[in-house]
Write a structure and sequence with these properties.
The protein is of the alpha+beta class and 310 residues long. Helix content is 40%, strand content 24%. It has helices at residues 41-51, 55-82, 84-95, 119-131, 143-157, 187-200, 214-227, 251-268; strands at 2-6, 9-13, 21-23, 26-28, 103-106, 112-115, 138-141, 163-167, 175-179, 208-212, 232-237, 240-247, 273-279, 289-291, 296-300, 303-305. The radius of gyration is 43 Å and the shape is elongated. It starts with a strand and ends in a 5-residue tail after the last strand.
Length: 310
Amino acid sequence: ILHELKEGNSESRSVQLNTPIQVGELLILIRPESEPWVPEQPEKLETSAKKNEPRFKNGIVAALAGFFILGIGTVGTLWILNSPQRQAAELDSLLGQEKERFQVLPGRDKMLYVAAQNERDTLWARQVLARGDYDKNARVINENEENKRISTWLDTYYPQLAYYRLHFDEPRKPVFWLSRQRNTMSKKELEVLSQKLRALMPYADSVNITLMDDVTAAGQAEAGLKQQALPYSRRNHKGGVTFVIQGALDDVEILRARQFVDSYYRTWGGRYVQFAIELKDDWLKGRSFQYGAEGYIKMSPGHWYFPSPL
């Protein structure tokens, strides 16, 4: 008979010899003094004791595991909230229905770049970001501004480089047009230049350098002037070509000339082919009248001018 004392009372129970007995937090065996231990019992006792180690140890392990999981969850949540994809989605939402006009590009410098197609869209997007209280690092870019920025850098570090223009049809993979005839750089030097340009544009995955023919550049300029029926003269000089649009042009012809020149510069830039407009006053304007099928012009009473030979 085993008598176990507890708070306020005692408990008596019969036990078997050489059999594990639970007493409080202890596991014990009882044997007669004259008898040996049963051989397998100590092993059972050791195993049972291991199973009944203080529960608070398991509680500590569980608590530590819980804190670890909670920490991972918190870090993961913060990463998701601040991930480039999440920030890009916030910018898309801020741009609203007009977001199709822009491309949001996460940069390697932890900034977000909003690529606009023209100056008007650039101004609009900057105003939206300013009014929308967007607290992340974001910058609106466009092709013209980036060309000016890159050109300033090239003028400093590659002043003799014969290039045309940087194209942003795909902002993640800009294309840099270089003169084939006037370029003296080796393949390795071109690769180094490509990497330097990429470093200047954190939103770009790569910068492709393409060699273009000077003959093609000048040929497209001359063909365009002929197509627009604009009078011009061509002047070749070292390092480039200048087309001079000249004559007594009316307002429609001047507008047509400027639209063509702007379109050409957007493709080829203005470093190799340049345009100039020399306007000549129409000395008959405002004081002459044309009558008849012969095309004569009355200059004043009793005075006529015939622009074509009789």
